[in-house]
Structure prediction request, 273 residues.
Amino acid sequence: MTILEQVQQTTQFIQSKAQLTPQIGIILGTGLGALAQELTIETTLSYESIPHFPLSTVEFHSGKLLLGTLGDKPVVVMQGRFHFYEGYSMQQITFPVRVMHALGVRTLLVSNAAGGLNPAFQTTDLMVIDDHISLLLPQNPLVGPNPPEFGDRFPDMSEPYSKSLIDQSLAIAEDLGIRLQRGVYVSVTGPQLETRAEYRMLRQWGADAVGMSTVPEVIVANQMGMAVFGVSVITDMCIPETLEKADIQKIIAAAGAAEPHLTRLMRTLVSQL
Ligand code: HPA
Prediction:
């Protein structure tokens, strides 16, 4: 079966379980699932119940697809995403984004936990992603057969994150008194954290934050013509000269501390879409 046929089957399955037509897709990153509590949920589908969905193996991800309304907007939410380091292919990681598009989603909101490379940042800051660097990833979700339904063979990447959504989010953050940085996200596969030499290189390349997710999904969303909005939560600082031992519990705790701000920002942005 082709990926396109899989997308169609999965979409039909979800449509058989849910009445609403989501316009907005939301992918919640590691330790950042709280926005789900703001939803009026119509349908909850665990990933293992959805045909062709990979299973989320990371233990702090609950692995559920939620359909419902946030404020008055119909949304589909991925609580838990797929990472390349778990062993999935780039096509598997981005499969849900193609399904979201087939369900009707034209705006994609993504969040992630990331390491801060910009010395002006602090742990628990939020950073709106205004651009990314994908080139360190060893594979690309667009390599392979490209049925016309998927979009252009050579998609444009001049505005991978919607400028108007960035501007809107900055205005909201100012209104709400939320510290919102802005910068470039560079994706790596992980799962090991980076060395000091790697952080130095990433900073010199022009990145402000580094993480192990998001970029494959954003590439596919762009290919499909979706408007994308991304926020990183800075969970640890990655300055070579002052680097501390990585502590995953601390990273999760920092994500939790920033989460209420992220939730308010996302909820307000959705209300304005
Ligand atoms: N590197 C990569 N991914 C991350 C980091 C980091 O320092 N922090 C949180 N996610």
About this structure: The first strand starts at residue 24 and ends at 28. The helical segments are 3-17, 90-103, 163-176, 196-204, 215-223, 248-272. The pocket of hypoxanthine is lined by residues 113-115, 188, 190, 193-194, 210-212, 235-236, 238, 251 (CB under 6 Å). The mean pLDDT is 94.
